[in-house]
Task: inverse folding
């Protein structure tokens, strides 16, 4: 090992605990995770956390602590907090361990996913190849088929149970099973159309080894979500789930404030703490506020340069697609979030992936447990848990702003979308009319509008305007003004600039409306209810009034500047 007084290295992408310690990388001491696991007494523990929150590193630490090895790994824990507990240290290096990580099993087809799963399992069988001498002939044949990758699906489904039985026989000690990022293949299956295949595999593979297995000492799983009980964890009554709303392991994943301050101090970045807090703090975990560790490590590596490190570690494609297709009601509440507000929702521990697109409540929980939202005021009301959901920090806020402001670029082109908004804020009605009507024809179907109900598109447009204009304008929707309610009001921070009031109206064919009559009706609504009253009261001298009608993919915009 390198001398302790040597300056620590920055652990970008280092998730192996042995390498972290031996190569003198900086890390926050989370070794009391081991004691908490002992104290819990749970047979199988699932700890869901957002990606890049230290799950793999912690699981690697558990592996190096518990696993029997020819050469002692006791030195890895010298000086760590767990050393204070002699009863725990007695267990160091005493168990056979099955260690699997599925964090890289994310492919576009089931055949590729199955191949990567098979390779991971093959490697673990190869690592424990020494048990073959204790196997019966049939067991040895099955072991070899799996080790060499010549097994069938049934062999692989039962392989975790088989290996645990073999290891207990070899060591005369019960086995610890560690499965890191168990749900990564499930997310990929949902996104790429092989959800049923991967669920069926994982249910058999994990269920047989973690439920009623007499060779099992403990099982620990990490992931992002608890995938619906009826899907993967069917009848697993020995499972303890410790998500971010529980007290268990609340301070063991993610950085606490004092851990962040210590790291900033170690790399001479102390002066940045207030901005660091705004950018990367704000996640609630049990009773703690925690920072995103990936972002802090990258911030230090980049000498204090602030940018969205965490949100840039994945394409966020699934999140963007789900948000695009959510209901108008959810889009209204997203407006509240992006402007710094919060919404109260029921918190559901189980996520059934197939329900996300049909059920906003499931989508809210998906965003929460994936780290795109956090919570406050978690409480039980009768038989349901509720919490206030909010965007945790500046970094995550950029995900929403980027998503909303670029929603329309696929069909319409970002350049033309920006031209449309520029004509709006410049108070140029003829240019806005031209771009808007073209924009609607090319973008309406992108938001699943049906018939004469373009609410999804309308609310997406408002969110896009919020994200694109919020640096220079206030964008308000469905607020009281004058004698009625307007749909959208755009108020410049610089009151010498023009403002805008927009009224939207869907064509009512039952009332024999046309695009023109509906647009006129929307325009009359602005005038009748004196919607410009609020802008006048603020001292604005130029106001753009827009009456806009929709019929399917067609639109008509009537404009006036006053």
Result:
């Amino acid at each position: 090992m390198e001398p302790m007084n040597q300056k620590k290295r920055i652990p970008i992408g280092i998730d192996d605990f042995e390498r972290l310690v031996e190569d003198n990388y900086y890390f926050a001491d989370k070794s009391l995770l081991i004691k908490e696991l002992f104290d819990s007494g749970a047979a199988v523990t699932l700890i869901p956390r957002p990606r890049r929150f230290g799950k793999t590193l912690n699981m690697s630490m558990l592996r190096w602590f518990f696993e029997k090895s020819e050469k002692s790994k006791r030195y890895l824990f010298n000086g760590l907090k767990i050393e204070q507990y002699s009863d725990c240290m007695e267990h160091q290096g005493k168990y056979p361990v099955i260690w699997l990580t599925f964090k890289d099993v994310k492919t576009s087809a089931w055949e590729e996913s199955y191949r990567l799963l098979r390779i991971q399992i093959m490697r673990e069988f190869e690592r424990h190849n020494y048990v073959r001498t204790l196997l019966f002939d049939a067991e040895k044949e099955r072991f070899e088929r799996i080790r060499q990758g010549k097994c069938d699906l049934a062999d692989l489904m039962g392989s975790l149970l088989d290996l645990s039985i073999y290891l207990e026989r070899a060591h005369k000690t019960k086995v610890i099973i560690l499965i890191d990022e168990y749900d990564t293949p499930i997310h990929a299956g949902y996104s790429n159309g092989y959800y049923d295949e991967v669920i069926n595999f994982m249910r058999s593979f994990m269920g047989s080894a973690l439920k009623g297995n007499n060779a099992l000492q403990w099982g620990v799983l990490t992931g992002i979500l608890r995938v619906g009980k009826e899907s993967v964890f069917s009848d697993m009554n020995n499972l303890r789930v410790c998500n971010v709303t529980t007290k268990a392991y609340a301070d063991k994943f993610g950085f606490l404030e004092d851990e962040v301050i210590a790291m900033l101090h170690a790399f001479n970045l102390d002066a940045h703490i207030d901005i660091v807090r705004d950018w990367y703090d704000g996640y609630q975990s049990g009773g703690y506020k925690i920072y995103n560790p990936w972002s802090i490590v990258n911030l230090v590596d980049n000498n204090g340069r602030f940018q969205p490190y965490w949100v840039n570690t994945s394409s966020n494609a699934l999140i963007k697609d789900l948000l695009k297709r959510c209901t108008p009601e959810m889009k209204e509440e997203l407006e509240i979030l992006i402007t710094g507000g919060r919404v109260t929702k029921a918190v559901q521990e189980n996520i059934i992936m197939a329900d996300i697109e049909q059920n906003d409540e499931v989508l809210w929980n998906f965003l929460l447990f994936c780290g795109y939202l956090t919570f406050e005021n978690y409480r039980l009301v009768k038989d349901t848990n509720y919490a206030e959901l909010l965007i945790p920090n500046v970094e995550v806020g950029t995900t929403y702003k980027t998503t909303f402001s670029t929603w329309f670029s696929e069909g319409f082109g970002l350049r033309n979308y920006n031209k449309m908004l520029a004509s709006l804020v410049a108070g140029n009605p003829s240019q806005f009319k031209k771009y808007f009507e073209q924009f609607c024809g090319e973008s309406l179907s992108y938001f699943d509008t049906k018939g004469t109900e373009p609410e999804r598109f309308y609310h997406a447009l408002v969110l896009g305007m919020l994200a694109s204009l919020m640096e220079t304008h206030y964008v308000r929707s469905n607020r009281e003004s004058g004698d009625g309610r307007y749909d959208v009001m755009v108020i410049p921070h610089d009151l010498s600039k023009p403002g805008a009031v927009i009224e939207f109206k869907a064509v009512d064919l039952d009332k024999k409306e046309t695009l023109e009559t509906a647009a006129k009706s929307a325009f009359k609504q602005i005038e009748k209810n004196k919607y410009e009253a609020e802008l006048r009261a603020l001292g604005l001298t130029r106001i753009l009034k827009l009456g806009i009608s929709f019929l399917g993919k067609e639109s008509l915009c009537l404009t006036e500047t006053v």
